Amino acid sequence: MERSEWIAISDCCTHYNIEISFVDSLQDYGLIEITRIQESKYIHEDRLPALERFIRLHYDLNINLEGIDVITQLVQQVEQLQHEIALLKSQFPR
């Protein structure tokens, strides 16, 4: 596990001006994965866009964690359906 791929949660919270408890709550809901390396918590850099989206939903639009969870699930369902439609279109061209 390369350390350069992991960003300290404390650094993220400072950068985005958010509470660590918000990130912990996102993990509790299964929305992000936090990894412990030694005594510190880290998030993988690939998950930063999702974290930024959750921050905007919560702080800019005042959506609670339950709402963020539902929105995330619905977006995943839409993406899955779009993938299935594209697959079907490729199998049955007009």
Strand tally is 3
| Helical proportion, percent range | 55-70%
Named CATH architecture: Orthogonal Bundle
Poorly predicted regions are none
Distance between the termini: 47 Å
Side by side, the strands of the main sheet go 1-3-2
Query: Strand count, sense and closure of the main sheet?
Result: 3 strands, antiparallel
Give helix and strand order, one letter per element, not per position: EHHEEHH
Tally of separate domains: 1
Provide the structure class.
alpha+beta
What's the number of helices? Answer: 4
> How large, in whole angstroms, is the Cα Rg?
17 Å
Task: Give a brief outline of the structure.
The protein has 94 residues and is α+β, with helices and mostly antiparallel strands. Helix content is 61%, strand content 13%. It has a three-stranded antiparallel beta sheet with strand order 1-3-2.
Description:
This protein is α+β, with helices and mostly antiparallel strands and 94 residues long. It has a single domain, classed as Multidrug-efflux Transporter Regulator, Chain: A, Domain 2 (Orthogonal Bundle), CATH 1.10.1660. It is 61% helix and 13% strand. It is built from four helices and three strands; from the N terminus they run βααββαα. It has helices at 9-16, 20-28, 48-60, 65-91; strands spanning 6-8, 34-37, 40-44. It has a three-stranded antiparallel sheet with strand order 1-3-2. A hairpin with a 2-residue loop joins β2 (34-37) and β3 (40-44). The longest helix is centred in the last third of the chain and has 27 residues, at 65-91. The model has no long low-confidence stretch (mean pLDDT 93). It comes from Siphonobacter curvatus. Pfam families: MerR_2. This is MerR family transcriptional regulator.
